[in-house]
Structures are given as C-alpha cells and as structure tokens.
Amino acid sequence: MSDKIDLGKVYAPSEDIVVREIEGEVVIVPLVSGIGDMEDELFTLNETGRDIWNKIDGSRTVAAVVRELAEEYDAPAGLLEELLVRKMVVEKE
Amino acid sequence: MTGTAYVKKIRSGEARLWPSRKPPLTRLDIELTERCNNDCIHCSVNRPAGDREARDREWGAESWKKLLDEAAALGCLVVRLTGGEPLLRDDFEEIYIHARRLGLRVMIFTNAALMTPDLARLLKDMPPLEAVEVSVYGMKEHTYEAVTRTPGSFDAFRRGLGFLREHGVPFIVKGAVLPATRGEMDEFEAWAGGLPGAAGLPSYALLFDLRSRRDGRKNALISSLRTDADEFVRVSRRHGEEAVGEWRDFCARSGGGRGGRLFSCLPSGGSAAVDPYGRLQYCLSLRHPATVYDLAAGSLREAVTEFLPAVRDLRSAGRAYLERCGRCFLKGLCEQCPAKSWAEHGTLDTPVEYFCGIAHAQAVAAGLLEPGEKAWTVTDGAVRTKRRR
Fold this sequence. Notes:
The structure holds 2 protein chains of 2 kinds.
Chain A: E1 11-13, E2 17-22, E3 25-30, E4 41-45, H1 47-53, H2 62-69, H3 77-85, E5 89-91
Chain B: E1 7-11, E2 27-31, E3 35-36, E4 47-48, H1 52-57, H2 61-73, E5 78-82, H3 92-101, E6 105-110, H4 117-125, E7 132-135, H5 141-148, H6 153-166, E8 171-176, H7 185-193, E9 203-205, H8 216-225, H9 229-236, H10 242-254, E10 271-274, E11 279-281, E12 293-294, H11 300-312, H12 319-323, H13 338-345, H14 353-365, H15 381-388
Parallel strand pairs in B: 2-5, 2-10, 3-4, 5-6, 6-7, 7-8, 8-9
Antiparallel strand pairs in B: 10-11, 11-12
C-alpha cells in the first residue's frame, strides 16, 4: 500500500489499532507490531486532528473530507497523510 | 510525513494525557493467581502450582474479561498481570489478548520459566507495549535453585528468556539480593547490561515484604533473609553516591510528618489492585479486611469512585503512629505504609521497626541525622533537608 494519499480514495481506521476516547481525549493504541516508531507508544490527537479523524470512517473520499472541513481548517490532508504513514488508516477495500 | 502536530506520541510513563480531568482508574494490578511454579524462599506470594484449593477459587477468564471491560470503560490505560506466576494459568493468552484488544497496555511480571515459543510470538505480534519484567534469582544453577527451591527452574528460566530474545520481545530483568546471590551482583549487572535494550543498572529486590496473607511461618523465614540497614546502605552505594543524593532530594520533596494521615503513596489516586478471587484492594499488598472490596457484590466503578477514596482518607488514632511516624521528617523515605503495618502487625498503623531502621540508616548516610538520633524527635527536619541538598 502506498503511503501517499489519493484524494479519490476512501480510508478507514485500521483494524491494527484500538481507538479509545478517554475523558474527551482520543487515544490511539497500537494493537500489533509496526504501528508506532517504537513498541511503547500511544498516540493522541489534538482538537483539529480529532475532528478530522471522526470523518475518516470508511464512507467518504479524502476529497469529500477535505471539502467538508475546508471552511474550518486549512489543510486536513496533512493529518491523513500522517496517519497513513503510521499505518493507522488503510484504504477501504 | 507532515510537520503538523495533529498526532502526539505518548511514551510509556508519560501519563499526562489529561491536563484537567483524570479518569477514575488509570492502572489496574491483577494478581491472576497465588500459585507459582517456583517456591522462592523470600517470596510473599507463592502457593504450590498444583494447589487445587487455590485454583478452584480463582476467577475464571470470563470474570477477568468482564472486569477488563469495566476497567477500560473507566479510562484505564495500563493493566499489570502478575501472581504468583501468571503464566501458570491456562487462560493467560485469552486474558492477555482481551486486554490488548480493549486498547490496554499490559505489564507482565514473570519468572519466564513457563514462556513458550507460541506465547513469545504472540507478544511479538501483539506487543504488550510495556517491557516484560523478568525476575532473576541467580546466575548459576546452584544459586538460582537455592532461591527457587525448584529443581530444573534455572534451565527453564534460561529457556524462557531465550524465547523472548529469539522473538525480539522487549524485556527487563530484576534481581534479588539474597544470601545465595549476594556474591553475584557484579556478574548479574554485567550480564544484564549485555541484554538487548539494556539501559542502566538493573533493579533489585532488597527489602522483602512479608506475606500480606500473614503466614507466620513463612514470614519468619522472609524476616531472616532481609538485608540489614548497614548492608542496604552499602549496596545502595556500590556505584557511588547518587543514591544518597536521591535520598536527600526525596526527603526534601516529600516534606515532614503527616500527622494521622495513613496513605502517602499514589497521591493522585487512579490505581487499584484485584486478588485472584475478585477482591479489590488499594494495592496488591494491602489485605486488611477494612480496605478490601468484594467485586462479586458490587462494581469496579463503585469500588474506585467511592470505596477507595474513603480508604485513602483513613487516618490513624494510634499513639505510637502519631508520636513517631506522624512526626517523622523521614516519612517520605520510609517504607512503612498501611500495607507493611498490616503484613507485619495486622494493623494499619503500627510502626515497622525494620523499615524505620532502614530509613534512619539512609538519613545518617545522607547527613540528615546523627547516629542514634531519632527522626521523630527532630524539630528542624525541613532545615536539615534544605541545607544538605
């Protein structure tokens, strides 16, 4: 799978992570090896990231996500690219 | 990769996820079994591996999984699976996988002897996100088995550790200073330093806890094996004066006596422990009946939001505690706590002479006390700790 995002594709959270919401924080916990840079890392999203993450649900193309958020945020594609490189989202089959 | 910080990495030990509101439970310690494949002379939790009475009373996998569900719903991030020897349980993998699928990090405390290639592979493929902690009881077969009193245990431990290494599972080793192993500390440290991922010196168990289930005969044996105060200071200084400096800093940071307040550990709360039979405790060692909550008759939420805060607020009215521990400026350095008083004396607040002696020896070494001086009679403790920092 390419680490480059394709605006026409649909992405969904990977099954190799567990996403938890704890006291308002989104926490992404790797479930298998090779998700984080190291084995002992968790990840959290900032407020902007959380809004973008909630739209990466396997139903929208990246272009649609970008369009929906364009009025509020400058560059949501940046997060998606970061999540893709970390293998936290995968292309929807 | 973009430079935008939409995603923040949190390493183990950095629990600063919640700047304003913390979940009611962040860590859960689970004693899966009291049973162990070894019979270590100093251990405070080890019933025989085949003890049917203990095994029949242990919670089954479904009960543990339900508890883990509740823990995750309360915001728990870390669960420690310990024992006894947790790998003795046939359902260990089932419980482990369930915890990981809930997004929990898992600490595993083990002697590694029951590690298998299959389990090591699982820990590689679905990592616990915490280094496996392996207790090591000696560098040679005769020293190791003088501690474990179990023939074949040295080979089993080495084999198990080999499986972890083979599969690249991160682990750390911990030693114990006992009559059989005192002469092996240099060898142990050299060996530990050559292991993959080694960082700094390994830790040691030096101040052995008595059995919190208050088994008189075993406790007499554990007492006889304990490091005395002078040796504790000597061992702590083996690699220089860093430890002594830390004792001074710790005294300065922890302040003076606490009056009747009993609990000084875990100041922000958020953790709890459960024994093999579903009884929730403040920590794994505190089994005083007044501080134990039966989860079968309640819920984890109630236990951590109502029961444990009430335990944490308990205060002592005991004269000896108030006149000694309550006034002592070494309280932060001393190991005495309700769990230790319970194991030693069957109360929550009786001063524990062994730990008192250790703390006083540390304070003398740190220049905070004169030999023979009693810390609870000192009125200028805060001045001394500041002066010596």
